């Protein structure tokens, strides 16, 4: 019997794409990194990004390792797939709703050292309910391995939130994002909705 690597499963490709879109949506993880980038230096923003990546990968691994072991028949697997699609549709609706609403002003935030932002980001990512629901529904529907999903989550989160932290620490990028945020949220919402419909049908 030939053993296959848990990192080579094709289920990780749609999982990586879906999680990348989830990570791009403004939420608690995004808010922590944005706060670090807007109120402190680049090193602090990168520390927050690594904290998010480690926390999210830990959460993904724990959920995939437990949920993936649950015995599901054809009916249960189908229900999990529908749940996954509905969840993506909900995320898409949230992004589109955010694009329609007027932008809110950022409040004045208290600066924290790099280690403080790292701890805050790690705790935020491990306690993120949206991520937990996404990892649970994805693990039940696609049977992704704990090792593979954790690695994918860490790489996607580290790259995306690292770029966010670096970008938002520059004044020119802050102005650009404030101007075009609505269009980016609309595009992300449409993409998530399309993936949700595809998963359901």
How would you characterize the overall build of this protein?
The protein is mainly alpha-helical. 79% of the residues lie in helices and 0% in strands. The protein has 8 helices and no strands. The two termini are 34 Å apart. Residues 1-8 and 105-110 have low confidence and may be disordered. This is LysE family transporter. It comes from Oryzicola mucosus. Keywords: Cell membrane, Membrane, Transmembrane, Transmembrane helix. GO terms for molecular function: amino acid transmembrane transporter activity. It is found in: Cell membrane.
Q: Features of this protein?
A:
single chain, 201 residues, mainly alpha, 8 helices, disordered N terminus
């Amino acid at each position: 019997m030939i053993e296959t690597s848990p990192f080579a499963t094709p289920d990780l490709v749609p999982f990586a794409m879906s999680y990348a879109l989830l990570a791009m949506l403004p939420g608690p993880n995004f808010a922590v990194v944005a706060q670090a980038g807007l109120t402190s230096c680049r090193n602090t923003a990168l520390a927050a990004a690594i904290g998010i990546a480690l926390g999210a990968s830990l959460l993904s691994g724990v959920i995939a390792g437990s949920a993936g072991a649950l015995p599901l028949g054809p009916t249960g697997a189908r229900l999990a797939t529908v749940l996954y699609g509905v969840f993506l549709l909900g995320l898409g609706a949230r992004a589109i709703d955010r694009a329609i609403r007027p932008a809110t002003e950022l409040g004045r935030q208290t600066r924290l050292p790099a280690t403080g932002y790292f701890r805050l980001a790690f705790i935020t990512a491990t306690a993120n309910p949206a991520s937990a629901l996404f990892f649970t529904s994805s693990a039940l529907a696609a049977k992704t391995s704990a090792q593979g999903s954790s690695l994918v989550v860490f790489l996607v989160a580290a790259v995306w939130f690292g770029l966010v932290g670096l970008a938002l620490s520059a004044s020119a990028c802050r102005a650009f994002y404030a101007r075009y945020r609505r269009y980016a949220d609309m595009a992300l919402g449409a993409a998530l909705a399309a993936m949700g419909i595809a998963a359901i049908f």
